[in-house]
């Protein structure tokens, strides 16, 4: 038994003594550095899983080999385990924990704890009794909200101490903000504190999403003013009411019956997980945020989502008692209910969040690909390999199609794609030589044999994948040729049928259907369409040449060389017909030019 195996056996004995309680476990390496922090409903059960089963992920196997010491902390509840794990990860940033790719400081809207409170944006959260709303993940959104509040309620922006005795002593004078109507002059006693604080309460309700309550109060006050014949003041409130109702209409995008709900969605790829968060209050989405978690071991999606939920709810100071999630979570939070909606408005909310997470993932991938184009190529090739069950990445693909109309001029085309892109210099045309009439199967068998017989003879590189435009029949014919050349198993081959985009494999009568939006299907369709276009163009060209040649053949005394000279000079039969005799003489000489001229005239 080597040193590594001996250490693992020692650790297994440590695990046997762990309590079956919720808590947090920490793994240390030989240098005493924390390399991983995890949470558990049952410490003994969770930690033992690292040492009693084979791990598919190489990263996890490396982590287990590096563990030199295990420490644990027992807590009272699963929620405490989540919070403690989150705090320890932030503090120590262990090497093998998922890395949160979002360390921005987001802005808040602060309502200052002071006489005649100011309302302003800040990135500093100071616990001085002030009220904070946010954080806002979009500075632009926060500015829109502040501008809207400023439009509705004149507020002071100065930092004067507006204690009652200071105002009474007449210490201050009004500023420019007063003169342009942005402030009502509380510093000189022109606005009483009760009226000012009522506006502050309205602002708090708006920021909480309780716009309906503010609208109701404004309507009541407006009616009272109208009853007292104070129509000018009532008109001012009516304008405010219009702004409030417009703001409410823009923010309410789900059912108004949904109150104080957090929505979390989850999408992932090989290296990262993306979690989107929506905060819903009174039917309106008031906060949206997406974070990325870089995977460092084979963490389960449930664990990653719980990590993101804990981090986001702490950061956003959310106290919602209902959380919508895309899949069940076997973990309990105090006074919180997890719900996986199946139908209705809550399901629509979750779908919206999922779309946000997906678009965020796509945007991240685009940014990464722009920085490193080769990574995009490798990813697409890897996707095709998995989708089509190939042995290797299809870096070199060739596509084939037959073209004939009523059995005339049968031709075929071969297009070549390298790294998912057309390599037009390597495209090839084929005249069908051994097949009489419109026999697509026999034609396909002939061109596949000729193409790869030649590549073998010339010792050229072979493609990793062949794409046949057609279903089982054309695919079977192509496979016959590969079998004759002893290339079965050396080159992968598929057929794509046009009607429903079925993908056929040799020897399998049941096709597969790729997602219509998948990159693999789009590349296969591109290959099919290119081979069809290239073949049809060649077929049309050949029919045109045959038609022209047959007309010139009827002119006695005009041989192949003369016909070639005419077509080279005049390009078409129509131009030859219209050409004057002197022009024809320049190409053919007097005698032959006269034959052509008299024939057409």
Describe this structure in words.
By secondary structure, the chain is α+β, with helices and mostly antiparallel strands. The protein has 5 domains: 95 residues, GIY-YIG endonuclease, CATH 3.40.1440.10; 101 residues, no CATH class; 108 residues, 2-Layer Sandwich (Nucleotidyltransferase, domain 5), CATH 3.30.420; 158 residues, Nucleotidyltransferase, domain 5; 47 residues, DNA polymerase, domain 1 (Orthogonal Bundle). The protein contains 20 helices and 20 strands. Strands 13, 14, 15, 16, 17, 18, 19 and 20 form an 8-stranded mixed β-sheet that branches. Strands 4-10-9-8-11-12 form a 6-stranded mixed β-sheet. A hairpin with a 2-residue loop joins strand 9 and strand 10. Helix 9 runs antiparallel to helix 10 and helix 19 packs across helix 20. The longest helix is centred in the last third of the chain and has 35 residues. It is flat. The N and C termini lie far apart (102 Å). The model has no long low-confidence stretch (mean pLDDT 81).
Layout of secondary structure:
Layout: H1 3-16, E1 23-28, E2 34-40, H2 43-52, H3 58-66, E3 69-74, H4 78-92, E4 99-100, E5 108-111, E6 119-122, E7 131-133, H5 139-152, H6 164-168, H7 176-179, H8 193-208, H9 211-227, H10 231-251, E8 261-268, E9 272-281, E10 284-294, H11 301-316, E11 322-324, E12 337-339, H12 344-371, H13 373-387, E13 396-405, E14 408-418, E15 421-422, E16 428-431, H14 440-457, E17 465-469, H15 472-484, E18 492-496, E19 503-505, E20 508-512, H16 519-553, H17 560-570, H18 573-578, H19 581-588, H20 590-600
Parallel strand pairs: 8-11, 11-12, 13-17, 17-18
Antiparallel strand pairs: 1-2, 1-3, 4-10, 5-6, 5-7, 8-9, 9-10, 13-14, 14-15, 14-16, 18-19, 19-20
Helix pairs in contact: 1-2, 4-11, 9-10, 12-13, 14-15, 19-20
């Amino acid at each position: 038994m080597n040193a590594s195996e001996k250490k693992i056996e020692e650790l297994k004995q440590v695990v046997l003594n762990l309590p079956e309680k919720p808590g947090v476990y920490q793994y240390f390496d030989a240098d005493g550095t924390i390399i991983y922090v995890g949470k558990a409903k049952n410490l003994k059960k969770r930690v033992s899983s690292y040492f009693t089963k084979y791990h598919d992920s190489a990263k996890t196997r490396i982590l287990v080999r590096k563990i030199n010491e295990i420490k644990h902390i027992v807590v009272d509840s699963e929620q405490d385990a989540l919070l403690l794990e989150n705090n320890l990860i932030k503090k120590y940033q262990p090497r093998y924990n998922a890395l949160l790719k979002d360390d921005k400081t987001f802005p808040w809207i602060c309502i200052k704890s002071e006489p005649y409170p100011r309302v302003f944006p800040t990135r500093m959260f100071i616990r001085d009794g002030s009220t904070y709303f946010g954080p806002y993940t979009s500075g632009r959104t926060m500015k829109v909200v502040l501008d809207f509040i400023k439009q509705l309620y004149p507020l002071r922006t100065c930092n004067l101490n507006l204690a009652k005795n200071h105002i009474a002593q007449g210490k201050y004078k009004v500023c420019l903000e007063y003169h342009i109507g942005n402030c009502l002059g509380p510093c000189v006693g022109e606005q009483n504190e009760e009226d000012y604080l009522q506006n502050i309460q309205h602002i708090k309700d708006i920021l909480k999403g309780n716009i309906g309550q503010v609208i109701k109060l404004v309507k009541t006050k407006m009616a009272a003013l109208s009853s007292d014949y104070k129509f000018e003041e009532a008109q001012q409130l009516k304008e405010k009411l219009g702004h409030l109702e417009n703001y409410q209409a823009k923010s309410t995008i789900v059912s108004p019956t949904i109150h104080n709900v957090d929505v979390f969605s989850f999408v992932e790829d090989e290296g990262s997980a993306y979690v989107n968060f929506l905060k819903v209050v009174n039917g309106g989405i008031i906060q949206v945020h997406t974070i990325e978690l870089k995977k460092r071991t084979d963490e389960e999606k449930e664990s990653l989502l719980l990590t993101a939920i804990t981090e986001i709810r702490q950061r956003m100071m959310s106290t919602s008692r209902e959380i919508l999630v895309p899949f069940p979570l076997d973990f309990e939070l105090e006074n919180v209910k997890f719900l996986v909606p199946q139908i209705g408005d809550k399901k629509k909310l979750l779908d919206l969040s999922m779309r946000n997470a997906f678009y965020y993932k796509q945007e991240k991938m685009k940014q990464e690909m722009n920085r490193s184009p080769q990574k995009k190529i490798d990813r697409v090739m890897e996707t095709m390999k998995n989708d089509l069950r190939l042995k290797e990445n299809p870096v070199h693909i060739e596509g084939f199609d037959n073209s004939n109309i009523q059995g005339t001029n049968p031709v075929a085309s071969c297009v070549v794609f390298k790294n998912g892109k057309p390599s037009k210099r390597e495209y090839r045309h084929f005249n069908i030589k051994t097949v009489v009439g419109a026999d697509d199967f026999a034609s396909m068998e002939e061109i596949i044999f000729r193409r790869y017989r030649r590549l073998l003879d010339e010792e050229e590189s072979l493609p990793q994948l062949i794409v046949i435009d057609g279903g089982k029949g054309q695919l079977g014919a192509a496979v016959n040729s590969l079998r004759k050349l002893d290339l079965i198993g050396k080159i992968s081959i598929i057929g794509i049928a046009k009607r429903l985009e079925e993908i056929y494999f040799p020897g399998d009568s049941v096709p597969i259907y790729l997602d219509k939006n998948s990159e693999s299907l789009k590349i296969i369709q591109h290959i099919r369409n290119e081979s069809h276009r290239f073949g049809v163009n060649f077929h049309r060209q050949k029919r045109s040449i045959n038609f022209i040649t047959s007309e010139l053949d009827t002119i006695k005394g005009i041989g192949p060389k003369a016909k070639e000279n005419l077509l080279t000079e005049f390009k078409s039969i129509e131009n030859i017909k219209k050409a004057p005799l002197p022009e024809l003489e320049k190409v053919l000489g007097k005698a032959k030019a006269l034959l052509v001229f008299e024939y057409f005239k």
